[in-house]
Design goal:
The chain is mostly beta strands. It has one domain: Lipocalin (Beta Barrel), CATH 2.40.128. It contains 3 helices and 21 strands. The strands form 4 sheets. It has a 10-stranded antiparallel beta barrel. The protein has a 3-stranded mixed beta sheet with strand order 1-15-14. A two-stranded antiparallel sheet has the order 4-5. A hairpin with a 7-residue loop joins strand 7 and strand 8. The longest helix is centred in the N-terminal third of the chain and has 23 residues. The radius of gyration is 24 Å and the shape is elongated. The N terminus is likely disordered.
Length: 303
């Protein structure tokens, strides 16, 4: 019957269209605990290093109830294609060049016992497919010793939040045919990966004031415990990859910079930070340095 043939034909078309969707629901899941200096572990540590909640100089001496606000922008190193080969033990290219900068806003509040509290937040602005999500920080500062010109302070800090983006399968890679030279791992769409940026640490800051305290060069040493964790969500060939990677380790960061009072109300901060990192890459897997360097600029309004 002609009517039945039409119906059967329509059903066949619907089933044929549904087959790729059904096959795409095949799930791939793997959990890996990565060494901190493995290519994957290094990549996670390198990304977390961009968000370190470091101080901008000598510990602030705010009276109880007094408050300041500030904003900071820091640079993120650009990585070559070979530097970004970190997936599958150092053979797969991952898109780590999402943004050249990292920024945060800060609220500084004076507490009793000469302690200053600092709350920070990074707005969820998307750049090149990457974006921070619910990224907040907390820090407490206090001067340990104060002389006529020199001072020594301590800071404890923590950050909680994520960064997400198309790292495993970038938009440019997914736009090419799966299995080709430009897309050898079969990305069918931009991935939606999430990296946990959690870390906490302690920092010591030594500072020297000049010109009635208007100019304050400083050096600082921080020790930070990182616990990066990645959730992958990528459609590759005919499977949905929901694998997870985790790592942990401690890094040290050396910073040198200065605070400069522009006016009684405005203060400029500048610093250069160095976080040593080690990575073992194929084929020899010999350990080598691949550190994180950052230039940080900040502006504070002193109420």
């Amino acid at each position: 019957m002609p009517g039945r043939s039409v119906v059967q034909g329509l059903l066949g078309l619907v089933m044929a269209a549904a087959m790729p969707i059904a096959s795409a629901q095949e799930l791939l899941y793997d959990y890996e605990r990565e060494a901190f200096d493995s290519p994957e572990g290094w990549a996670m540590a390198h990304t977390v290093a961009a968000s370190l909640n470091l101080g901008t100089g000598a510990a602030r001496r705010l009276a109880a109830g007094e408050w300041h606000i500030s904003a900071e922008m820091s640079s993120i190193p650009h990585l070559s294609r070979e530097d970004q080969r970190v997936g599958f033990g150092g053979y797969k290219l991952e898109d780590m060049n999402k943004s050249p900068v990292f920024g945060r806003g800060r609220l500084h509040i004076g507490l009793p016992a000469a302690i200053s509290a600092e709350l920070s937040w990074t707005p969820p602005l998307e750049i090149n497919g990457g974006r921070p999500e619910h990224l907040f920080g907390l820090a407490l500062e206090r001067a340990l010793w104060q002389g006529e010109a020199w001072s020594l302070g301590a800071r404890v800090f923590a950050v909680r939040g994520d960064a997400s983006g198309d790292t495993t399968c970038s938009r440019s890679v997914a736009s090419q045919a799966p299995g080709t030279a430009g897309n050898p791992f079969g990305c069918r769409a931009p991935s939606d990966d999430t990296l946990r940026l959690d870390h906490e640490g302690v920092e010591l800051v030594a500072s020297r004031s000049f010109g009635d305290g208007r100019w304050q060069p400083f050096v600082a040493l921080a020790s930070t415990r990182m616990s990066p964790y990645v959730e992958i969500k990528a459609l590759v060939f005919d499977s949905l990859d929901l694998s997870e990677l985790e790592s942990s380790g401690t890094v040290q960061t050396l910073s040198a910079g200065t605070l400069l009072d522009l006016t009684p109300a405005w203060q400029l901060s500048m610093a250069l930070s160095w976080t040593p990192l080690e990575v073992r890459r194929p084929p020899q897997y010999n350990s080598r340095s691949h550190d994180f360097w950052s230039v940080r600029l900040g502006l504070a309004w002193k109420r």
